[in-house]
Amino acid sequence: MPSMAYFVYKRKNMSKSIQKILIQESLSREDIICLLKADEKERTLIFEKAAQIKTKYLGDIVYFRGLIEYSNICSKNCYYCGIRSGNKKMMLYELPEEDVFEAAKYAYEEGYGSLVIQAGEISSKKFIKKITHLLQKIKAMSNGELGITLSLGEQTEETFQTWFNAGAHRYLLRIEASDRELYSKLHPNNKVHDFDFRLHSLKLLRKIGYQVGTGVMIGLPFQTIENLADDLLFMRDLDIDMCGMGPYIEHEHTPLYEYKNQLMSKRERFVLSLKMIAILRILMKDINIAASTAMQTLDVAGREKAIKVGANIVMPNLTPLKYRDSYLLYEDKPCIDEEASECNNCLEARIKIAGATIGYNEWGDSEHFKERKK
Ligand code: SAH
Ligand code: SF4
Description:
Layout: H1 4-23, H2 29-36, H3 40-58, E1 61-71, H4 97-109, E2 114-119, H5 125-141, E3 147-151, H6 157-165, E4 170-172, H7 180-186, H8 195-208, E5 211-214, E6 217-218, H9 225-238, E7 242-247, H10 266-283, E8 288-291, H11 293-298, H12 302-308, E9 313-314, H13 321-324, H14 340-353, E10 357-358, H15 367-373
Parallel strand pairs: 1-2, 1-9, 1-10, 2-3, 3-4, 4-5, 5-7, 6-7, 7-8, 8-9
Helix pairs in contact: 1-3, 2-9, 3-10, 4-5, 6-8, 9-10
């Protein structure tokens, strides 16, 4: 049995190595793994470094994207997701056009600057047309001033182009897990859940001219720390403009629920998500990183904590209340019974407490994207 002195010695050396890693110009896979494994004391060093980088490259401004959960109807059957087509235990909805428009107007009037329209994945002609029409209408209503991010899953190049032409300029499509083997354990093994097609979609989005966002879930069953390090490298190598990532949260009516006893505690998943955000900020200094709703689910101050360690985007939920409890991607989703205006007041105060200011009436585009375009 090694002596206590040995452990103290080892701990000290480990901290030193974290410090050493943090002053390097670039990080290797091993370095990232070491950072992901940092203990409570060591991780504050990582968080501080990430906060410094954010301030240096982006200032302390947080941008809002009003989130509209347009529909919970989905043609896919991802094993982790509460709104998968195989879950028959929910009321299906698609927001009436007036409700989307109303939410968009609210965002515009409150000076949010941008919207995110998210939904289950549908590729019918009717759906494509409806989204195109909504984009055009929202753009016209706001004199082109509201920026629009879409998160509507994989689509054809033609559809991506149609929506781009109609006014969407950012697209969020999480790779979910960048390791093929892990991906295959999270999805049915068929053509509509093909890893390569998802990757291809990300490349199409870039080609068309979107600001491209991706991300992963953190703390998934079967996922290793090495997988997460590779996820970060995947995002760096793809040279993404934006990232939305957060903890995996189990949902009772999904196949992965069976593995709930193998998961890390929710607290551990939350802390690991903070580390992922901070390390990504260190790796990709000027991209936009969202403080995800799932962070808030696991910790009431989750989004503010994410902002403190490198995130710069928040997505207040503007989905009309009566539909919110039908868009349950996972358990215990927050704000399912708060009006947008109440949420807004509380969020503004919380963000100020986190030491940031809100960039009202601005798109808050990815600086990384702007740099690449120069
Ligand atoms: N259908 C689109 C967008 C809606 S789903 C798409 O899949 O791209 C939005 C995100 O919710 C997904 O990318 C996934 O990462 C996240 N999500 C789904 N189920 C989740 C769960 N159980 N825990 C955490 N995030 C989840
Ligand atoms: Fe559908 Fe997206 Fe959920 Fe998969 S993650 S089931 S594509 S809504």
